[in-house]
Amino acid sequence: MKLYYIPAACSLSPHIVLHELALDFTPIQVNYKTHRTADGRNFLDLNPLGYAPLLELDDGSLLREGPAILQYLADLKPGAQLAPAHASMARYRLQEWLNFLTSEIHKGFIPLLYPVQAGRYATESATPKLAQRYAWIDAQLAGKDYLMGHYTVADSYLYALTQWGQAEWLVPTYQANIRFDGLEHLKAWYLRMRERPAVRKALDTEGLK
Q1: Cβ proximity of 24 and 1 under 8 Å
Q2: What angle separates helix 12-20 from helix 153-162, to the nearest 10 degrees?
Q3: In what order do the strands lie in the sheet with 54-56?
Q4: 63: domain CATH number?
Q5: What is the pLDDT of residue 116?
Q6: Which terminus of the chain, N or C, has fewer Cβ atoms within 10 Å?
Q7: Which residues of the chain have pLDDT under 70?
Q8: Name one Pfam family in it (predicted).
Q9: Is 78 in contact with 85 (CB distance < 8 Å)?
Q10: Residue 52: exposed, middle, or buried by beta-carbon count in 10 A (0-12, 13-18, 19+)?
Q11: Residue 29 backbone phi and psi in degrees, to 5
Q12: In whole angstroms, what is the distance from residue 151 CA to residue 145 CA?
């Protein structure tokens, strides 16, 4: 398999999961400005939408969209329990988390990551909304090490998004940093995630601190 990724983007999430599952894969960096891959290809030929992650399977087929890729990878090794069994209520809870993270957290960061395109109103309203959402996540983490009690692909997705709010260099104009003041459950979760070997491997590969 090949994982096409952009450093520090949401593609960090499947990058982490691939290491968690010890799957054989080749990480291929994509330049988000030129759309050229590290192996010299035009990324737009692979994904005309231009964004990562993109997973190329051994048979040449392509899988787009982070939540779909995460569940595909988890299902390759069901014994690792990174995703609950199909048709179980727990699986629907996982999908509930992935949809929430996509629509409320991932999209919530966009005005802060691209403030010029979003406009002043969008950027000013984004931070308090994200703060509310993170406060809710903090409450869900009370008494739990991970979002669903045990580690799942949802945690890798949340980590990839949350690290945007911890790296001020990503947003030089507007402060998108997520404050952990008073969010002790979230803070403990974040530090716990950062110490996972798979997270550290992915961060090292992508050149992130």
Answers
A1: yes
A2: 140
A3: 26-29, 2-5, 54-56, 62-64
A4: 3.40.30.10
A5: 55
A6: C
A7: 115-123, 167-177
A8: GST_N_2
A9: yes
A10: buried
A11: -75, 145
A12: 8
Q: Cite the DSSP H helix spans in 64-194.
A: 66-76, 89-100, 107-113, 115-118, 120-140, 153-162, 184-194
For 72-123, the pLDDT digits (tens) are 999 999 999 999 999 999 999 999 999 999 999 999 998 887 765 555 556 6
Domain final position from 46, 81, 116: 81
Domain boundary residue among 81, 114, 142?
81
Q: What is the pTM of this model?
A: 0.93
CB 5 within 8 A of CB 11: yes
Q: Is residue 208 part of a domain?
A: no
Q: Is 149 exposed, middle or buried (0-12, 13-18, 19+ CB in 10 A)?
A: exposed
175 and 106 part of one domain: yes
